[in-house]
Amino acid sequence: MKKLLIAAIVSAAVLAGCTDVKDVVISKKEDIETHSSDLKKLPDEDKKLVIGYFLRAEGNGLFGEKAEYGVTVGEAIKRQKEFIAAQEAEEAAKKEAVEKVQKTYTVSYS
């Protein structure tokens, strides 16, 4: 019986150590600190995306579309990538509109 209990505890410890950091759920600001050792395992690009996402959650929409807690790290990364892509598309559309107006109203003094 003791051997079975020890085996179960060791198995649980091994499984807990093998969880993917992207499956960690961040439900509140304090969870970021709680899981900081796991978050440090992310590649630098993913760390920046996670930081950006949760800054938007803390900013309550101040930095654009409001982000929310209660998502996995992987989902936060995905949503932040989508947010950045939408921002870039919006900027490109604005730039294109400005260029179109500038071409339309270019006056030559020749």
Characterize the structure shown.
The protein has helices at residues 2-17, 29-34, 36-39, 44-58, 73-104, and strands spanning 25-26, 71-72. With 110 residues, the chain is mostly helical. Helix 4 (44-58) packs across helix 5. The protein starts with a helix and ends in a 6-residue tail after the last helix. Mean pLDDT is 81; it is low at 7-15.
Topology:
Layout: H1 2-17, E1 25-26, H2 29-34, H3 36-39, H4 44-58, E2 71-72, H5 73-104
Antiparallel strand pairs: 1-2
Structural class: mainly alpha
Question: Strand order, biggest sheet?
Answer: 1-2
* Radius of gyration, whole Å: 23 Å
Main β sheet profile = 2 strands, antiparallel
How much of the sequence lies in strands comes to under 5%
Helix content: 55-70%
How would you sum up the global shape? elongated
Q: How far apart lie the N and C ends?
A: 98 Å
Separate helix tally: 5
Given as residue ranges, the uncertain stretches (5+ residues, pLDDT < 50) are 7-15
Taken in chain order, the helices and strands follow as HEHHHEH
Determine the mean pLDDT.
Answer: 81
Task: Please tally the β strands and state the result.
Answer: 2
Keywords:
about 110 residues; mainly alpha; two-stranded antiparallel sheet; 5 helices; about 65% helix
Structure summary:
The chain is mainly α. It is built from five helices and two strands.
